[in-house]
Design brief:
Blueprint lengths: L20 E5 L6 E15 L6 E13 L5 E5 L11 E3 L1 H7 L1 E2 L1 H27 L3 H14 L4 H13 L3 H11 L11 H13 L3 H14 L4 H13 L3 H14 L4 H12 L5 H6 L24
Antiparallel strand pairs: 1-2, 2-3, 2-6, 3-4, 4-5
Length: about 300
């Protein structure tokens, strides 16, 4: 996984000719990719019998054209920010079945997103300073606007973990583990911090469920495998620890921490070659390992 951005739902600052095309021109036709607000309409029947009447329901969507030409859309919630599950549609379907709403973006959605991001940024600044109650207040206000906002949920969860409030943190964990967006590359730093803090707070089962969800959604990542090994080690599941250390080394044979960890397990007589073989891990042959300390997580904040 590679980090791409710290921000979730950050609006572009410029508009295209119709207020709905933003971003980088394609190399083929130099056309800017679609980015902006569109609306769709559906007819709803209200009442029964002779009192039936038809009403038109209008739904607003944030639309973003992806590199492969399909368009990702996400509904706009009652607080005027993109929220909820994203889905992909063909660009032709967007053009034929949806209507551009440039004024709605400029006058309503953009200010709402900017205000939401400001609350989150203020919360993050408070958390970095150790001002946990002020951070909690800002993150809670952000979640009142968008309950599924990834950055706000991570921020609140980390705040609770740093205060040692495991029960409250567990509630945030239950929410985050269900959000696919929480495991996207742009949130990698927050993801790492949260997983490591779960383990440090002895929430080992939650950490493993969290990492397992990441493993199922994300591309293979040696540091993720290493941190899974760390969590298994805390549960004294040594064969599983060795298995994930081996997976890390399959991706990066020179992964120093994984190599050292395997050797450390052998030095402490926690893992013999037969158990290593059972776990699918090669014998660790690092010379002069001595009594080095146990390695720590990859991606752990300073």
């Amino acid at each position: 996984m590679t980090a791409e951005s710290d921000h979730n739902n950050t609006p572009h600052d410029s508009q295209g000719d119709h207020g709905t095309q933003h971003g980088h021109p394609s190399s083929a036709d130099h056309r800017e990719k679609i980015y902006g607000i569109f609306s769709s309409q559906s007819v709803q029947k209200v009442g029964t019998g002779t009192s039936v009447r038809k009403t038109i329901q209008k739904t607003f969507w944030m639309a973003k054209e992806l590199d492969d030409g399909v368009v990702e859309i996400q509904p706009i919630n009652v607080n005027f920010v993109p929220s909820g599950p994203k889905r992909k549609i063909a660009k032709d379907d967007l053009i034929t079945k949806f209507s551009p709403e440039p004024e709605y973006y400029v006058q309503t959605v953009y200010p709402a997103i900017r205000n939401l991001n400001q609350k989150i940024e203020e919360g993050e600044k408070h958390r970095e300073k150790g001002e946990h109650f002020s951070a909690e207040n800002k993150f809670q206000k952000a979640l009142e606007v968008d309950v599924d906002n990834v950055r706000a949920n991570f921020g609140l969860g980390l705040t609770y973990l740093e205060r040692g409030e495991s029960e409250k943190a567990d509630n945030i964990f239950e929410r985050l583990v269900k959000l696919d967006a929480a495991f996207e590359p742009e949130h990698k730093h927050l993801f790492n911090d949260f997983g490591i803090n779960l383990r440090k707070n002895k929430m080992y089962d939650q950490a493993l469920e969290y990492y397992s969800r990441a493993e199922s959604l994300a591309t293979a990542d040696e540091n993720l495998y290493y941190n899974i090994a760390r969590a298994y080690f805390e549960k004294h599941q040594i064969a599983d620890t060795a298995h994930y250390l081996n997976k890390a080394l399959e991706l990066d044979p020179e992964h120093e921490a994984a190599t050292q960890f395997l050797q450390w397990l052998k030095d402490k007589n926690l893992l013999d070659d037969a158990t290593l073989a059972e776990a699918g891990a090669p014998p660790a042959e690092t010379p002069d390992a001595g009594e080095r300390g146990q390695p720590d997580e990859q991606g752990e904040p300073e």
